[in-house]
Amino acid sequence: MPKLGPFSPRAIAAIGASSSNPRTSCDGELEEEEDSFEHTLLVVREVSVFKIPPRSTSGGYMCGEWLQSDKIWSGRLRVISCNNRCEIRLEDPNSGDLFAAGFVNPGQRETAVEPVLDSSRYFVLKIEDGTEKHAFIGLGITAVFTEERD
User: Fold this and answer.
1) Residue spans of alpha helices (H) in 9-67
2) Which CATH number fits domain 37-141: 3.40.30.10, 2.30.29.30, 2.60.40.10, 3.40.50.970?
């Protein structure tokens, strides 16, 4: 049976409840809860964020150019499905405080998340602050996933 490493069935399970109490939606607007159902699609317990240099080639980013001294944060990553888009949240694993968020609209994954050329565990993530300001950060999946076979 495969071992899922830092993933747990409870962390990946869908969240949300149906009620008539208003709450803040994924877009930050007040909505009826049944109109803004969220699902947690993925939780990665340990990721690192890097300040990255500008892209050196038109071909893409290379994580080999990122320095350990440019590591600016470590924490948890959650991918949330919300209405017609996904939200990538970088959160403090203890308090749940949001460090940064990126949004993936339908058909636009390439503009929000870009794999690097020299690793399968590093990506460039476009983060946004809600006022149309954005930045690009390096994202490394620190945890190593293993698979065990019977």
Assistant:
1) 9-12
2) 2.30.29.30
